Amino acid sequence: QAVVDFERLGEHAAAFQGHDVGFCCLGTTRARAGADGFIRVDRDYVAQAAELARAGGCKHFVLQSSRGANAQSPFLYLRVKGEVENLVQAVGFDHCTILRPALLLCKRQESRPMEWIAQQFFGAVACVFPTANSVPVETVARAMVACVLQPGKEKVKVLENKAIHELGKA
């Protein structure tokens, strides 16, 4: 495990050397970092990490994005997620898997009251429609590993929420 300073990521290129697979779940919130900080973390840091990973020999990059990601979205969050998906794909990995989970069901250390309410609601909905609007983080993690252990032939593969559930339970 290597600890890096994302503000000087280029100085940590050695940490990205010699890995066949890269997993990226990096992200923050607009509330925590402000709009500019959110863009810097969720787009710029991720894109730079992908470039360093590719330069270091990474063949398969797995990116956790978000349901609804779209570089043309009028909503900052979805637009930034779409932009970073495009940037990561452009790096030129042999394989690039993008996971677009819906609401992540998890326990957080920081307080996010609105997210907690959404998790309670969608957690209950998941009892009836398990793949509709949410996914446990453990399922996302298993799906990320499974897509590397069972790579397809396609250069870029995008997994939406239902496919994440299926792969994460296989």
In brief:
The protein is of the alpha/beta class. It has helices at 30-55, 76-90, 113-128, 137-149, 161-169, and strands at residues 21-24, 60-64, 95-100, 103-105, 134-136, 156-160.
Notes on the structure:
The protein has 170 residues and is α/β, with parallel strands linked by helices. It has one domain: NAD(P)-binding Rossmann-like Domain (Rossmann fold, 3-Layer(aba) Sandwich). The protein contains five helices and six strands, in the order E-H-E-H-E-E-H-E-H-E-H. Strand 2, helix 2 and strand 3 form a beta-alpha-beta unit. It starts with 20 loop residues before the first strand and ends with a helix. Pfam families: NAD_binding_10. GO terms for molecular function: catalytic activity. InterPro entries: NAD(P)-bd_dom, NAD(P)-bd_dom_sf. It comes from Pycnonotus jocosus.
